[in-house]
Structures are given as structure tokens and as C-alpha cells.
Amino acid sequence: MARSKGLKVFAGNSNPALAKAICDALEMPLGNARIEKFPDGEIDVKIYDDVRGVDCFFIQSTCPPVNDNLIEMLLFGDAARRASAERITAVIPYYGYARKDRKDEGRVPISAKLVANCIGVSGYDRVLTMDLHSAQIQGFFDIPVDHLYAAPVLFEYFRDLKKRLETRNITIVAPDVGRSKVARGYAKRLNAGLAIVDKRRVSGEETEFLDMIGNVEGQVCVIIDDMIATGGSIVDAAKACKKFGAGEIYVACTHPVMCGPAVERLSNAPLQECVVCDTIPTQGKEFPQLKVLSVAGLLAEAIKRIHFSESVSLLFK
Ligand code: R5P
Fold first, then answer.
1. pLDDT for 131-143, tens place per residue?
2. Is residue 199 annotated as part of the catalytic site, yes or no?
3. Which fold has domain 151-293?
4. Which ligand 1 atom sits closest to the C-alpha of 178?
């Protein structure tokens, strides 16, 4: 059953191209709001559309500039709540601050939980997000979370690639042990082999290769990960595949954060293609092997289903 006064989609400044693509898929204009900075750097929000009784969706990835994008989202939630929106959903294609999801040493924050708390108290009723760094972050929210996967979009691409390359010798590579379960899912669906890179994180920018579990010799390798930050994990995995005799090497990754030395590292890595999704803009970070797939259709469909109170999980059946 549709909400009484319809739905409106608004967007912050993090990813205007994705917001437009989602609205195009929904065949509706983007809602009218202004989000800008005061001269001192504080962020200001004004919603021009009447949202009283409206089912509002606010699209914002908390990618760099992470803190500005986060505050934009919090302030929009507050503005929409005070303007009597009927329901407000934070659509967060990329959820930043996710990697600090537990106390792995003394006297550190659990940032993923704090950010979830902030979103919950700023006026939002629901969250729609994609490929969280760890699925249990859903439980950090006290409001409903719909967790989408970019996998259908990436699967389709690599299924076509398999046909194009006319090869059966594909191996899915997890760049660390933590990603092995997701990699196993890809391997099963693509009828491919599985290998796991045993890596150790040395610092925020550096990782160290320890061992390769599984066989990649003569294989077309597809390294999968949820995000590329500095590129260290992916590039180390690619070099390891090469060292153990892999043929062509591809990357399939949802969130192209690509900060610091990432672009330089990736463009010099032994990669055929680096396939990412448009959850985060890549303008200004292009390199020859980069290929961007859109998840706008998936997000638009989920927004429609939430609005009409239809199953979102059925999207992945
Ligand atoms: C690790 O747990 C993540 O899944 C990514 O592999 C990691 O965060 C990517 O970071 P970087 O690109 O800096 O190695």
C-alpha cells in the first residue's frame, strides 16, 4: 500500500550522479533542497519542497569528505523530521566509518556504532544501504535496515566476461581471510575455483602478503572486495596472483573509496580491469583499467519496494 502523500527523493552533495540516475530510474525529479556551507565551514540545510506527510528518501554516501557528508545527512534528517515528513529513509550506498566495528585494542571507539546512533537520533526511521563492511553493522541501528548487495550487478558482468573469454578456468580470490565467505558465494555462482590471500595489515596504508591458499596457476583471477581504500590489499593480492602463475587478473569491488596512493598503485598493478560500482563518485580518479558499473537501478527498485511496503529481500532471490 502506497504512503498517503507519495514519495520524494532528496540528495546530499556526496554523489549527485548516482542520485540523478536513481531518480531517472524512478522517473521522478530530485526533490528541491539546498545544502551548503556557511563561511565558517558549518553546514546548512533548507528543504524547499513541502514534505509534510511525505515518504522521504535522502541519498548520501559517507565517502570523503566523510565528515561533511555525514553531517549533511544528519542535518537533513533533522530538517525533514521538523518539517513533519511521514517517514524518512537514509539511503547510504556507501557507509563510511564501518571499519571500526569493534574494540580491537584498548581505549578506541566503536565508530560504526556511534555513527549508527547519530543517524538514529537525527530523525531517520529507516536505513537502506549496500555492502556494509561487515553485515553485523545492521545490528548497530535501532531502526530497520535494508542491506542490499551489489553482487547481482557484478555477477552479471563477470558471467558475461566468462562467456567472452570462453574460459572455464576462473578463480575467485579473496584478498584476505575475512572476505573468504563472500568469495565462496561468488565462486559457487560463477562455477569457479576459490583462492584466499593470507595478508597482514601493517598500517592504514600498508599490508603484508603472507601466503596464497589455493591454486591460481594459469587461472583468470577475479579478486573481490567490499572496498578499495589505499589500494594496498587489492594490489598485494594481484601481485600474489601473478607470483603464483595467474593469467589475467580482474578486480570486482563495490565501493571505490580510492584515497591516498590508490590510483597510482592500481594503475601500475598487473590488472586487466578494475571493476567497481558507482556508490562513490570516481571523477578525477580514472585510470585505464577502471570500469564503473551502476547500482542505481538496484537502489531505485529497493526505494520503490520500501515505499510500497513490498519485500526487498525478494530482489536477491
Ligand atoms: C579489509 O578488511 C577491507 O575489506 C578492504 O580490503 C580494505 O579496507 C581495503 O583497504 P586498502 O585499499 O587500504 O588496502
1. 999 999 999 999 9
2. yes
3. Rossmann fold (3.40.50)
4. 2
